[in-house]
Amino acid sequence: MNNEQIRTAARKHLDGLTKPVGSLGKLEDFAVKMAEIQGKVVPESGKMGAFVIAADHGINEAGVSMYPKEVTKQMVANFTQNGAGINVLARHCGFDVFIVDAGIASDVDLSQVIGCKAGYGTRNFHEIEAMTADQLEICLANGKQLAENAVTEGYKILALGDMGISNTTTAAAMAIAGGLPAESIIDKGTGISSEMLDHKRRVILESIERHAPFSDAKDIMRKVGGFELATMAGFILGLKGKGCACMIDGFPVTAGAYMAWLMDNEVSAYLFAGHKSKVKGHAVMLQAMGLEAIVELDMRLGEGTGAVIGGFLVNLGIKIASEMASFNDAGVSQSTGKEENY
């Protein structure tokens, strides 16, 4: 069956379950999209994994963050000790957590972290291109391999999270270079002052001017990107046709997804926006990709926290489709009139 046929059959299946038609709202929508992703009228629940991909950013040298780059490595250590927000939320939402070093500025313990280092942090793109063409290709290839490995291991829903001091600056530069308006994208990120925001805006716009024009998404990532965000783009591209959904998190992760979308618009078919971040530019990128956020909780932590919350709800939709009794099975009489889906 093609996607339209699966979509129609999945709706018919849901309408035949012991509930008024459409009464579970968006949970039913999630089940239908998962049916399309998996190519099955009744989608299957399975393992869920969250990949928190970390890297450092040379743009931190331009004074765009309140935090030093060392915090990236320190937070990765916190992840491995199950002490961060993503660890708590993933545990209670049913996600396994995997930490990935895509370009932390120092070495980390690879007994607990997946090593995918493309370099020891990107270069300061306010002065020079962020990475080499070879480093970009390493990131994209690493992301695709991570995705392929996860699918092979039986994961049905994969969430992406980020860790990288100054990566909201990188994400904003990528989004603007990708054609989105600067005034709707640049925001404070992690709690900077209004004065620092003005400086951050100036650094981003000067960097865009320095590196323009941008020929395509690869050119954008090479000039103003981040190792973890490029790895995420590769990860998303690597899931195409694999029957697996990808939950994206907040502003930085969505910038990586936006790069993947610029490379292949069809990725939206298997992407879910876990949440709408408090960072204003997030909604703009989601709208560009045709994605609607599952929840809006005024979050701006990152780490994949919003992605696993959204993933939990999507999985509930799958459970409804696959475990709820039909009217026939339960011996329950159906409505005798045409029900309104309101």
From TrEMBL:
What processes in GO biological process is this protein linked to? cobalamin biosynthetic process
**What Gene Ontology molecular-function terms does this entry list?**
nicotinate-nucleotide-dimethylbenzimidazole phosphoribosyltransferase activity
Q: Name one Pfam family in it.
A: DBI_PRT
Enzyme Commission (EC) number: 2.4.2.21
Q: Which reaction(s) does the protein catalyse, per the Swiss-Prot or TrEMBL entry? A: 5,6-dimethylbenzimidazole + nicotinate beta-D-ribonucleotide = alpha-ribazole 5'-phosphate + nicotinate + H(+)
Q: Does the keyword Acyltransferase apply?
A: no
- Residues in coiled coil: none
| Class of enzymatic activity (EC top level) | transferase
Q: Which NCBIfam families match?
A: cobT_DBIPRT, PRK00105.1
Q: What is this protein called?
A: Nicotinate-nucleotide--dimethylbenzimidazole phosphoribosyltransferase
Taxonomic source organism: Sediminispirochaeta smaragdinae (strain DSM 11293 / JCM 15392 / SEBR 4228) (Spirochaeta smaragdinae)
